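Reposting from the mailing list since nobody answered there.

I have sequence plus structure tokens for a pair of proteins and want to know whether others read the tokens the same way I do. The first protein:
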Amino acid sequence: MASAVAAACAPAAHAALTENLTTNVTAMALGNAVTADPPGIGSVHFNPAGLARLEGDSETIHNWAASIRTSASFHQPAGFDVGGWTEDPLNGKSTGPVRQIMYVPGYGMPGWRLPGVAVPGLGMAWNKKGSPWTFATDSYMSQAMSLDRTTDVNDPGQYAGRQIQIQRLVYLSPSVGYKYSDTLRFGAAVPIAHAAFVVDTNMRFPNELLGVFGKLQQGWCPENGGNIIDTFGFGVCGGGKDGMVSPFKTAANMRLEMTAPVDPTLNLGVLWEPKPWFAFGAVYQGGSKTHYTGSYQFNTEPMLRNFVRGLNSSLLGPIAGAVLGFPSSIPAIQKGNMSATIPFPYHVQVGIKLRPVQMVQLNVDASYANWNEWNALTFQFDQSIKLLEVARLYGIPDSSKLTIPRGYKSLVNFGYGLQLFPHERVTLRFGYEPRKTSVPSDKVDLIAPLPNTKLLSAGLNLKLSKTMDLSLTGSYMKGKFSTPANTDCNMNCNTFLNIIYNPYAGLDVNADIHVRYFGFELTKRF
């Protein structure tokens, strides 16, 4: 039941992985190690002080395309037992095809199922000749994660997100760079973003308590319905065949769709270039308490609806239900409005640029993001959710509000970039970024299949003319994880009260993720 909102924990993990992943073509080619050598209009995000290096007016058109592929397999270890149930139908199964989707601001979720997504952007900068001030704005996707598993209705990944769309699109970013001296520059930017969060998932609840109760029903209830003794008792058979509880049945579907249309943050940067061969840069990217609003819909399958109906049709069942806080009935569909305040953590990045010889440049950056803010998330519904009322037995007192523990952590990551200058009109770029995830190994799940990853990139810049440059980048990122049964209570713990949320309880889970990226950027100076 509470898994519905547990799915909402995905954004934190997605952000922990996708920081700077779809932001700028040049930065991507250099492993995002550009704080000491900010990339043109991309300085708005990576270090606004770099804007003060731009001369004259310019316009930049950029576009990127990315495909995300993730897969998982499930294995039932020796001694598997969930409250007496010893055969999970997902044993030996693997997840199926993955596609991408897109949230269009002002429209919502189109019905597209794409092999990848492409996002265009436009940046502009203005500098009056001789002025120390440069003004700019840029549009870009600062964070994105997109998974669609709806192609196969039997995909075992359906219990950890049929659709997941997390994106933060900066559509306006008024910025300024100031040249204090020939060696020192400062800058500030105010990215204004549209944030979207969509999770659609089926749910099942394989835990010990539910398993034991299902076996009790099997032993007590006739195959075709209730019995007279049960009618005068607690009505555990009153739901008929459809009301027979199984820890492996699909119990419900949940869809959450929320947005924050206007969410500004603040970027502050400094760039110090005391020598032609050395530079130091630092940027602070401020966070926010992003307030999301939107809608929800719970579709409950007959298993729980019929069970509650049978309970309340017996003599003693309503008394037991009242003691346990159960609802008198569960509607097939319950929908309404919801809200959540989800922190967007601040991010600090520092870097150096070294150019020991004219043809070679090395960039090294260190970054820190404050993801330990995601210790817990709270979601508020506009009414009591009848499906969640059943979860009162599992320690959830308020069925109109749910607080989900996450336990993510803040880490320092490094990025490395290499530039070669074989010709005055050609620059070759290479990047390497070992990305440590903010999701601990005992918190990872298929809603956020985000282990440690390695990002490899290559790109080039071509000076097409004195006033026009073209940059191209291709990148590949991969990671994998293996989670033995009962080691991750966001995914596969098998305990008595583990309903939040372990859809693969007792199973070994092996999973991987692969991201392919291509981008281009065309800059015209006037």
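The second protein, same order (residues first, tokens after):
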Amino acid sequence: MTCSKGRPLLRWATGASACVLVLLGAGLPVGPGPAWAQEAASAVQDVTLTDVTLPLGDAVLKAARVTVSGTRLSKDELLALLRPGPEPVASRLARLDAASLVIPDLRIEGGSKGVRETVTYGNVVAKDVRAGRIAELTSTGAVLTVEGERKGAGSYGPLQATDLDLAALARLYAEPGDGKGALQRIYGTFAVADIAFVDAKGMAVKFARIQGRDLSARPVPGTWAGALAALTAPGLAEAPPATRAKLSANAADLAEAVTLGGFEATGLSVQHTTGPTPLNLAIDRIQVGGSDASLEGITLASNGLDAKAARLSLNGFSIAPTIAALRKLAATPDATDEDLRRLTPVIGTLALSDLSLDLSGDPGAKAQDPVVKTEPLHVGLRAATFNFGPPRDGVPTAGRIDLAGLTLPASAVAGVPGLGSLGLYGYRDLDLTVVADTAWDAAAKELKLGEISISGKDMGTVRVNGMLGGIGPEVFDPDAGVSGFAMLSATAKALDLTIENTGLFERFIAAQSKVLSLKPEELKQEYVTASLYGVPAILGNSAGAKAIGAAMGQFVAKPGTLSLSVRPRNGTGIGMLEFSASPTPAAVLDRLTIDAKAN
């Protein structure tokens, strides 16, 4: 829905809908409280207005009949509030007072650049309208049509809003500000049911219900209407640098100018049944609140892919770095790839549970092609967690990945180094756990490898821990030349390797013994001998080399756990260039303290 074909829906959900609420406020009802009723009982009256028209920006509000009840305003005064003139709409709406306001049919017409949009609301009722603020606003539904260069049609079901400030909303929509004023509360709650939209290309979007609470915002330069129209206009990719710079400023203004207490959408369905790439996406529930968001009950089917996930959540998300990068882009119209990389937000923690992927056939092959065929593939993931620290130049400075219950057939990794032979050892299906944990210490200029590991059910675990020194901020530079050169000055300060066997080694010996026509015990003895004598000889017969060979021999004889700890003798680390320039392995080992053991 981010492509140009989806923009009518986006404009409907932003510009048109915001305009609707403002325009609805031009005449909506509200029920008076007891104190007000006693004070003004003798002054109130009912007024009926006909053929009401109110221009607002690029939209026009039209109502054939408006009934205003319990108001102290005369008919002429009410008409003056709606009549176009030099006084801002927000100021006029701030004088609107009534016990209730009823509009049987409210029509909003708008659009720009070859596109015409019309939204018609039915049975609009506003209760207890005081100084332009509505206690409760309802409508039985609405119909939307989009005509011109982009075509589509849609509808709302029942709509309700509480504590809706029409004057504040009109001020945001139509009056420019500096983007630095105080936040103004727009509504307490908002809910709409049975939302549907279909464009001319067959893309259909539906929501069972959307609701939100505590929306506040402040005016921005160029008005919200202008900023939204600019950001949803077609052809942005081809726009000149000056235009793109202005759009960056608009996006930053809007991002900083709004807060939302909470948002929830249920029953999302996106379907596209025409064209070469059909799509069927459904999400049971979407929730957003503060820096947290979640999706529940996700299903996706498209071109040979069937995917399901129970839940996808995001916690600790922040767009502060993105806003700062947008401000910088606004000052430098000729954006580079490095500038765009700095748009990366603080991701926080991304978690996924119960993922299931089924691939049938070749997704890239045409349905009528009988030659291109692949075996169906099923991949499962019980749980996944991705933790990311604050980014520097678009790159997170810390991160941890945990994948638990990653299941897939062994045939799927046939070409992967280190895993490709698992099928030969009798594994049909793999059940893996993967962990990767890294963190950068800016003060010490160190990159800590907290844990890099992979474990397999009935296989074992390979775990690596380590420390790299000389990792300064240049490593995160967007310029690949600068970051690459900085990595050359890095030093290896610590390395720990642990191998735990829980079945893989025995299967390896059994498979190799058949290939070599040896008994398993005979093959193990050959490997023991090679470890005790061959490995030290290859590594230079130093004390460290002999320790490694002895530990490997013990591990082969009784496969359990093999551990290797390596530290530089100088305590400061060995540079990457020194490793590559060493003439023999012995020249490197002589500079290391090695502790190797097996048990």
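Reply #1 (J.P.):
I read it the same way you do. The first strand starts at residue 45 and ends at 56.
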